[in-house]
Design a protein that fits this description.
Strand 1 (22-25), helix 2 (30-42) and strand 2 form a beta-alpha-beta unit. Helix 2 crosses helix 6 (213-227) and helix 6 (213-227) packs antiparallel against helix 7 (232-239). 30% of the residues lie in helices and 20% in strands. It is α/β, with parallel strands linked by helices and 240 residues long. It starts with a helix and ends with a helix. The protein has a five-stranded mixed β-sheet, with helices on one face. Strands 5-4-9 form a three-stranded mixed β-sheet, with no helix packed on it.
Amino acid sequence: MNTETTALLIDVIAGMLEGLGRVAVGASSPIPAAAALLARERGGGRPALSLLGAQAGSDFTDGGRELFDRAGQGRIDAFFLGGVQIDGGADINLVGTGPHPAAEKRFPGSYGSAYLYFVVPRVILFRLEHSPRTLVRKVDFVSAPGTSPPGVYRPGGPYALVTGRCVFRFEPARGRFRLASLHPGHSLDEVRDATGFDFDSADDPPETPAPDAGTMALLRGPVGAALADVYPRFAAAFLG
């Protein structure tokens, strides 16, 4: 992944966070973390940011336990989830591939993802690899469901899916994704071939806009400096 693609992904995710009160970012999430920092720079300090692992610029004092407490209290407006598999209903799999419990490959596990998926109003799914291996018709194991039956109390849920090829928005009423934009250099036919689930789309979807010079200055300046606190190698490699 090159610097231009990285900056584009950070910029498009940051746009989804504008106007929110508080964003939380978990571990091993440099691009979502950079996006949250960029949104905060643009918003003059809002949204507030809770960033796991940060020594400065974050108000987390008790790690994951505080994340769960705040989410349950309705004090987190956006969070990020990924998965080894994501399907067309926005279900995610963080456990393993193949028939459960005799999985072909095992991964760290769900770690509270279902809880956060239910209580955080704007969950942005993020997966760089966009292939039929990762975006599947149906996940092999449901770590966290994208939708719930009628009558289930659920203030939270999926808002968008950002990949290395495009941006999808989730339509709760239909329980499926709609293609929102294609990243530069990618086509609708290519994305359909690379996606294991069906999705809705306009015949001529728009292109994801590239970040402007002002955004690049923020990324190479205060955002990169703040990100280096948690992800020094990533910040040095992609944001200078």
